[in-house]
Amino acid sequence: MNTQYMISAIRPISVCGTLPESVDCIESDSRKVIPGSLFVAVRGSQVDGHQYISRAIEQGAVVVVCEDVPELLQAQVAYVQVKDSAEALGYLASRFYGDPSQDLTLVGVTGTNGKTTTATLLYEMFRLFGEKVGLLSTVCNYVDSEAVPSTHTTPDPLTLNALLRRMVEAGCRYAFMEVSSHAVHQHRIAGLKFAGGIFTNLTRDHLDYHKTVDAYLKAKKMFFDALPAGAFALTNVDDKVGEVMLQNTSAKKCTYSLRTMSDFKARIIENRLDGTTVSFDNSEVETHFVGRFNVYNLLAVYATTLLLGREKEETLINMSLLVPVAGRFQTVYSPRGYVAVIDYAHTPDALDNVLSTLRDVLGDKGRIITVVGAGGNRDKGKRPIMAQVSSRWSDELVLTSDNPRNENPDDILADMAAGLDAEAMKHSLMITDRRQAIRAAVRMAQPGDVILIAGKGHEDYQEIMGVKYHFDDREEVEKIFSE
How many other C-beta atoms lie within 10 A of the C-beta of residue 52? Predict the structure, then answer.
């Protein structure tokens, strides 16, 4: 890639040394640098890339992009000083891979809950239209039909642009992606051209990183503030900050709602454990999804599909064909007459949504038995709240491990239990071993009951003291049900 052309994607404060005619590679990890590389020194939340400039040069970097130019300069290296190297990386990565987002209709989905379901269903929707489509999500990335394992909700700029380039080369016309608050704040999406943005909702999450709900909100809003005039900004106006997302955007402002006046409207006609009958703009559709929270996701998909130019009638037909995403309200039926629901719910609001839905569907015809934990090395403040919400809706509660990471799992359970009063504790168990916790919940179940196993959803591992062990909630349930 021509170096001058790459550097033209950013606004350097200064350039020290002579830029080579071309670079062969771009990296932000000094360990991956090869001769002829352009190295971007990024200040991360854990590591500062400026500390590894010398190592990158030793491995053959010929251009270094950084915020602080080293005092000792190497004659064979050009140093490009920028205000924000994380933002520069996004633009440079996009340019290096040929600005792939320019060749796609790229739509981003942000919010606390519903990102994975909404983005994945849009991917499935447009494949039903016969299109080649790309997906970037928490569960798995897809280049048309090719699955590419996912490690982050939103990948780093280099991985992201490499995947978008693969999508273009595979003939994809559309791409749908989850946009996390971390990704916006860390400029991972800098340099991308979006055709539209979707806001689902905002509740407490990631405060270990953002520190305050206001900072978390502003990170989400930054995505909409940056949308171009030709794009659309679609927001859930039933959420208390839904309209805030539209305040400073140049994009076309659009709204969806189940409760208030909006551009796109839905109404729940019947809610069952095997699906929901929904009216979209006065047109009735049978769906395979359960719960009000899922109807919001479906409405966002419906609205986006129409905003991208598809006809309403064909869109509604495809809505009836869509099925739940892995680990999102997945049901497993026991031959003994009770049901397990596997769901990724790992925030107080998500738990409230799933459990209130189960209570609405069950009424007084069955009990809810909930198995839930909280992740280690994350926001500790939500742990007692998660236990409170789970206890409020559940007849029986089992607190257990999620991904304790580098924390003692018993300490996490103690943090959760601190949110329960003496009465709630009478209906609660604390079982650290997740496998045994699930088994205990199944032993309690009677015909007509529902067992909610929350927190991990699609994940097929447990991370304990930094080590990942295979563990799949659905597999565990099916194994116990077959005994």
Answer: 20
Please report the pLDDT score of residue 204 as a whole number: 53
State the Cα angle at 219 between 174 and 44, rounded to 5°: 95
3-state secondary structure the chain: CEHHHHHCCCCCCEEECCCCCECCEEECCHHHCCCCEEEECCECCCCEHHHHHHHHHHCCEEEEEECCCCCCCCCCCEEEECCCHHHHHHHHHHHHCCCHHHHCEEEEEECCCCHHHHHHHHHHHHHHCCCCEEEECCCEEEECCEEEECCCCCCCHHHHHHHHHHHHHCCCCEEEEECCHHHHHCCCCCCCCCCEEEECCCCCCCHHHHCCHHHHHHHHHHHHHCCCCCCEEEEECCCCCCHHHHCCCCCEEEEEECCCCCCEEEEEEEEECCEEEEEECCEEEEECCCCHHHHHHHHHHHHHHHHCCCCHHHHHHHHCCCCCCCCCCEEEECCCCCEEEEECCCCHHHHHHHHHHHHHHHCCCCCEEEEECCCCCCCCCHHHHHHHHHHHHCCEEEECCCCCECCCHHHHHHHHHCCCCHHHHCCEEECCCHHHHHHHHHHHCCCCCEEEEECCCCCCEEEECCEEEECCHHHHHHHHHHC
Of all residues in the chain, the percent with pLDDT exceeding 70 is 98
pLDDT in tens, 178-217: 999 888 989 999 999 999 999 999 985 545 554 577 888 8
Residue given tokens 């909280």 in the structure block: 374
What backbone torsions phi and psi does residue 286 show, to the nearest 5 degrees? -90, 125
- pLDDT recorded at residue 207: 53
Summarised one tens digit per residue, pLDDT across range 147-188 is 998 877 678 999 999 999 999 999 999 999 999 988 898 999
Query: For residues 473 and 225, what is the distance between their CA atoms, to the nearest angstrom?
Result: 39
Tens of pLDDT, residues 303-354? 999 999 999 999 999 999 999 888 888 889 999 999 999 998 888 988 998 9
